[in-house]
Write a structure and sequence with these properties.
This is Isoamylase early set domain-containing protein. The protein has 99 residues and is an all-beta fold. Helices cover 0% and strands 55% of the residues.
């Protein structure tokens, strides 16, 4: 799940990435805005999920995927769209243009 918070006075968007923690021991987000480095997501026991929050520039498109349990790539079902990657799978896109 992806949630976005737009600011009236800032040229950035707060984006929260959330992944269901069912059958997941650990999760990382891997994204172009993180230079494709594996970045741990925070486990939230109350909501039974993993979360990662960041601020991204407005009016952009950013690619990402989740890497879970150190073995499996997972896409976000609520991504704005998908694009093929060089490994024969799809990357998720989050768009920060306000509708």
């Amino acid at each position: 799940m992806i949630s976005k918070r737009f600011f009236k006075t800032k040229n950035e968007v707060e984006v929260t990435f959330e992944l269901d923690a069912k059958n997941v021991e650990n999760a990382e987000i891997v994204a172009d805005f993180l230079d494709w480095k594996h970045t741990p997501m925070k486990k939230v026991v109350k909501s039974k999920s993993f979360k990662f929050k960041t601020r991204l520039p407005k009016d952009g498109e950013f690619e990402f995927r989740y890497f879970v349990n150190g073995t499996e790539w997972v896409n976000d079902a609520q991504a704005d769209q998908y694009v093929p990657n060089e490994y024969g799978a799809d990357n998720c896109i989050v768009n920060t243009t306000q509708a």
